[in-house]
Fold this protein.
Amino acid sequence: MNRAVAFALLATGAITLAGCGFTPLYGNPAVTAQLHSVQVTTPPGRTGQLLREHLDDALANAKGGAPQYRMDLALSETRYPRGLRVDNVATRYEYVLTANYTLVSSASGVAVMSGSTRAQVTYDSADQPYASITAQQDAQDRAAAECARLIQLELAAWLATQGKS
């Protein structure tokens, strides 16, 4: 009896979902192909390199192929002291990474999309200098990974709507 009810609910749900016009974001093969053909240019520096690596992984950048788009990035980094001790030394920091990006068509050289993402992470500042530097670098990497994820989602959503217009 329970299996029959479960099967009926599953069948009803599948029919309802099929009739609503729901399409997964990556269900369109053109979106994935266009994501592969984005060439990322970042500003010099450690954070720029980290963001580029994460974006190349997220977009599954196709090496060797002619890119359809070029993404230009501008980064802004800010570090705020949090958690002050009695002697006015910060024990915790908040690191904010803002990535402004512009997507340029390689064929026409015209900017077709622009946006901005922001990632906030916190990290402990240890009394040992090496541990403090390592924690700060880890925060930069986590923030770059989050910005890359947000850029990928915004870009995929934009590319998915381009095919429908």
